[in-house]
Design goal:
The protein has 153 residues and is an alpha+beta fold. It has six helices and five strands.
């Protein structure tokens, strides 16, 4: 049996060809990862794989042996400042895009390496995530505020 690390815990990968999203939701019970479009076009299903966002609805789970996967539950468990910032800025509306936005934002802030993020970079990092409820202003503000908090800027 092959394994991957999910939110810090080793987990057996499925051998039946299912996508990451189905395995994460159905087998692991981590339902924070949503599958809004099911075709890899909206970014709502994004999870971090070795620190980079991937579309879990169109990525086979079996190919990620020894990978490190972080879901929105993993961000919550470590009390990532992004979650609080999203709440404080009213960045979450219906919730379908929120998990994908959070993991994409986390990857961007990690890429900043402690430097303060900028609006253009935040918008670029979130460009693969579709939100039908907001104008992205609150989401970008939340990412920038969390980035400033993390960088001390």
């Amino acid at each position: 049996m092959t394994t991957a690390e999910v939110n810090g815990r080793p987990r057996d990968l499925p051998e039946d060809g299912r996508c990451l999203a189905d395995w994460i939701r159905d087998d692991l019970g981590l339902t924070g990862t949503k599958i809004p479009c099911g075709s890899g076009h909206c970014g709502g299903c994004s999870v971090l794989l070795d620190g980079r966002p991937v579309l879990s609805c169109s990525t086979p789970a079996v190919v990620h042996e020894d990978g490190r996967i972080t879901t929105v539950e993993g961000l919550a468990a470590r009390q990532d400042p992004l979650l609080r910032s999203f709440v404080e800025h009213g960045a979450a509306q219906c919730g379908y895009c929120t998990a994908g936005m959070l993991v994409a934002a986390r990857a961007y802030l990690d890429e900043c390496g402690g430097a303060a993020p900028d609006e253009a970079g935040a918008r670029r990092a979130l460009s693969g995530n579709v939100c039908r409820c907001t104008g992205y202003t609150a989401i970008v503000a939340a990412v920038l505020a969390a980035g400033r908090e993390c960088s001390g800027a």
